[in-house]
């Protein structure tokens, strides 16, 4: 599905037919990013990669999300 097709669907679809209770709010960042190098135990990196694969997201994006959650709860 193209972005245009998705936009058209959302703009015209009756979303009341869908159960949106399981949706999770997502924050989008458009600020400058800076690259860092982090050394992790292999078992932690493997766990992050496995979780990312189950969720269908890139593991680096998942790591950023997990750090953000940790910072909010710290």
From TrEMBL:
InterPro entries: CopG_antitoxin. It comes from the Bacteria. Pfam families: CopG_antitoxin. This is BrnA antitoxin family protein. It comes from Jiella avicenniae.
């Amino acid at each position: 599905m193209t972005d245009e097709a998705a936009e058209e669907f959302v703009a015209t679809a009756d979303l009341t037919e869908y159960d949106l209770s399981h949706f999770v709010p997502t924050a989008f960042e458009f600020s400058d990013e800076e690259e860092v190098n982090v050394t992790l135990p292999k078992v932690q990196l493997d766990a992050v990669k496995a979780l990312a694969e189950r969720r269908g997201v890139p593991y680096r994006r998942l790591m950023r999300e997990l750090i953000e959650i940790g910072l909010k709860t710290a």
